[in-house]
Amino acid sequence: MRLLLLASGTGSLVQAVIEGLADTGIEIVAVGSDLADAPVLQKARAADIEVFSAHPRDYADRAAWDQAFTETVAGYSPDWVVSAGFMRILGTAFVSRFGGRIINTHPALLPSFPGAHGVRDALAYGAKVTGTTIHLVDEGVDTGPIIAQFPIAIEPDEDEAALHERIKIIERRELVRFLRFLEHSTIEVSGRHVSGYTPSAS
Ligand code: GRF
After folding, report:
1. Domains of the chain
2. N or C, where is the chain less crowded by C-beta within 10 Å?
3. Residues lining ligand 1, CB < 6 A?
């Protein structure tokens, strides 16, 4: 199974995936980013994984970036693409090329609190429970079919950084578990409904 990871930031999710799949037959064929200086690319290089980056501002328009990004990723022939902390919305060309094979983790219980600030938005709303969602990517913002969700209670007076870190501990563990499952099994998608994967109790 060929896996391609996309990320924009520090890359703790990517690091967890690299380490968590090391004893499997899953090959991480590349780590891609929108940011050439994203720390995640250093982590990937240190693990001897190929990296690439492309930022929309270096292209004539968003469609040109989308097309180029799609072609670059297609060149690695991935079976699955994982958006593991990739902070940009994937374009139409990308989603039509890899649709049904793109996985994202979002740090909230979708459909609540989509977008770039899921943790902050849950806190601002006064939610008592939030969590993380593993889902397929479609053309919307965090709107694709849900694969699995993991709730977490918000502590009184918890700040965004502390809550996000607690969520990320679950994201790392559960993303690795799901990818390990995918090596030997598959999911079925019917409309919004995804079946075939039952997260194990932890
Ligand atoms: C994760 O919470 C992910 O869900 C969100 O960005 C975070 C990535 O963190 N989209 P890191 O850069 O892997 O530490």
Report:
1. 2-195 (3.40.50.170)
2. C
3. 9-14, 85, 105-107, 168, 171
